């Protein structure tokens, strides 16, 4: 929950958060609503989205079901945002997948293309469409946060191609920050292992061992990422763009040694 001094940071603002029916995306949507904002959330499951909207408040949230890499879904979500709330101020490109495990020498090429489409190309497409929609509504998009990963900053055994796509997303963040300035800021977050359904294979059955890899001696929780996301989206980060913030429980301190 937001502290009193930031409770109104998103008053009158509207954010579109992809992949927000659960996990990190849902936690970010909660944080934005807690700070006075309204949200349009997307995800593949209509039932999960409906549950999330009930939780967030139907007066503050709108759910639009579909796949992040589907052009018709993106157009529908942006159009519904405009119809319901009349504006778009912020975008969180949180949707991501990883159906391929193992070394790069064994990765299925079709799966690799799908991961690239969802994790990178769709983020670019969402950004272009939301920037255009915000401008059409009369004001430039204020900020974008892309959900990268520590897997995009170093070797990532077992999830190597996922790491490749997150490295691409980090560079996409830099390129968009340059091209969309001065009106729109673009930053990224790179979380370590967060206790979500998507990441279960990285810690399930060995959570204590996995947590001991972090100086803070625990895995991340979705709320640990939601706070930094809200900061980067907000005017408190008005002079921050093109940056990737590591949210990794201190793991990078050790790897840098």
From TrEMBL:
GO molecular function annotation:
oxidoreductase activity
Which residues, if any, are the signal sequence?
none
| Alphabetized NCBIfam families for the sequence | PRK07231.1
Q: Does the keyword Oxidoreductase apply?
A: yes
Keywords (A to Z) from UniProt? Oxidoreductase
Q: Which family does it belong to?
A: Belongs to the short-chain dehydrogenases/reductases (SDR) family.
PROSITE patterns (alphabetical): ADH_SHORT (PS00061)
* The Ketoreductase domain, residue ranges: 13-197
Species annotation: Promicromonospora citrea
Xref: SMART domains = PKS_KR (SM00822)
Protein name per its UniProtKB record: 3-oxoacyl-ACP reductase
